[in-house]
Amino acid sequence: MLVVTALGGNALLERGEPLTAETQRANVRHAAEALAGIVRAGHDLVITHGNGPQVGLLALQGAAYKPDEAYPLDVLGAETEGMIGYMIEQELENILDHDRPVATLLTQVVVDGHDPAFARPTKFVGPVYDRDEAETRAQAAGWSIAPDGDKWRRVVPSPRPVEIPDLRVLQLLLDQGVIVICTGGGGIPVVRRADGGLVGIEAVIDKDAASALLARQLGADALLMLTDVDGVYRGFGTDGAERLERLTAAEARALELPEGSMAPKVRAACEFAESGGLAGIGRLQDAVAILEGRGGTQIRPDT
Amino acid sequence: MLVVTALGGNALLERGEPLTAETQRANVRHAAEALAGIVRAGHDLVITHGNGPQVGLLALQGAAYKPDEAYPLDVLGAETEGMIGYMIEQELENILDHDRPVATLLTQVVVDGHDPAFARPTKFVGPVYDRDEAETRAQAAGWSIAPDGDKWRRVVPSPRPVEIPDLRVLQLLLDQGVIVICTGGGGIPVVRRADGGLVGIEAVIDKDAASALLARQLGADALLMLTDVDGVYRGFGTDGAERLERLTAAEARALELPEGSMAPKVRAACEFAESGGLAGIGRLQDAVAILEGRGGTQIRPDT
Predict the structure, then answer these.
(1) Which end of chain A has fewer beta carbons closer than 10 Å to its terminal beta carbon, N or C?
(2) Average pLDDT, chain B
(3) Same domain for B127 and B220?
(4) Is residue B10 among the annotated active site residues?
(5) Which residues of chain B have a CB within 8 Å of the CB of A189?
(6) Is the CB of B65 less than 8 angstroms away from the CB of A64?
(7) A135 and A226 share a domain?
């Protein structure tokens, strides 16, 4: 099977951990062990990953040095594809004893410049501020800001991914048995100009939505979305919470889920299942078990 | 012909220019036009690039935010491969009207952990300081420092590149007609552990040396090192300065050259010419002319 595996930000960095190189590497090593299990089970593998905390950190570092020369989100996204891709590639190659080639491919992802998300930025990036400080920074840097609990944060547009131009290169590598790390952070956000050229844009693409698009366009057999929760729950956080082991896409669409982290995963899983593939959601260490129906939540095509 | 083209730091950023995203992009666009000329002349193309100013900037940004959580040079190098690779890929694809696939591949380059360079760091990274400040920072961060003119700077080891593990993936892409951007900044510096695994190390690999190794191992026909000087000169900076149009490797080895920027290029060119290829040194905009012997300096195998 060709398996596309999306590593959530929480799979690469536990909540509250400092974002040092050492911490990230330790978590990536842990993730690489789970990924190696998928390869050893005989599958071809494409790996995508989140970059929320990392892109926030790079923005903070830039602002701490020269705030008026801050880099736009497409460039910061490309930096995180380099940094995170490198760590995953190296750890996975080491665990696989360099038996299988692993390649990290920078990936641009095209969004529609007229996507309504550009008029309504909703995706939080970077740290929380008191309202006054957030407003001062917003004015200086041209940010949009929004309340997050009783604090304020920068928000950026999160438009839908519509095209992955690097798909043909990716397919070439997969045809030759290469394990590919790509579409990091949902991909480097770009729009198409009138002349067909690509240009970067200030946005953050949802990693799960981009991974579902990638999996569909590659004709993958399975899409795994790995996080720190062991599946989709009915009544999550209540006494009667119940992990759902198998759902059809229609059943999954009917669930009421918190918008924070699980809802976008389930939406992406449904999109992929509706195109005929097997989608799975669960913990990193359960990756193979989810594929085999022994853990997590499987979302399958409606029959 | 298969042409490996190494873009010097000075080809991507004019001396003294600010390192903003806009400035870099404008310079990359200019470089991409020259690279497109090589493709239009009918050649296959691999692009490498320097990262000196960029890796220095990322180190400064990190230090400005949280100095005690500064990232090591392998991770920073991976970030610059993402950032610079993205800009080159996008600009080149746009100029080529998306007719030819262009891919950016993260590249680790192995050095010998016993390389004498580790005992004698010589490569300047980051900004200049007064001696007192340099010593304070060196003590806090475990840097080596050295005088640069009447100021002081951090110095890091610059070991010789010995192996490029990603070569087989790179070859797969070239076999399919893909233009590949790789080995940015001389590659992400790694050493082999006793068990064969790879691990990052605090070093900076000379881009020209890594590009020559890459060109040899790929069996490339030509290696072009592009900079802001129009060739190799006898008596550079004197009244009788004379550009040398053609040299054998032996003639080039006999030249006395300033160690700063031209000497490593000529050494790398000689290594490649001695393995049977055509090496060229000159300005970005003369890339095709250098290949055709109408500009820059050609260094050819000894006959």
Answers:
(1) C
(2) 93
(3) no
(4) yes
(5) none
(6) yes
(7) no
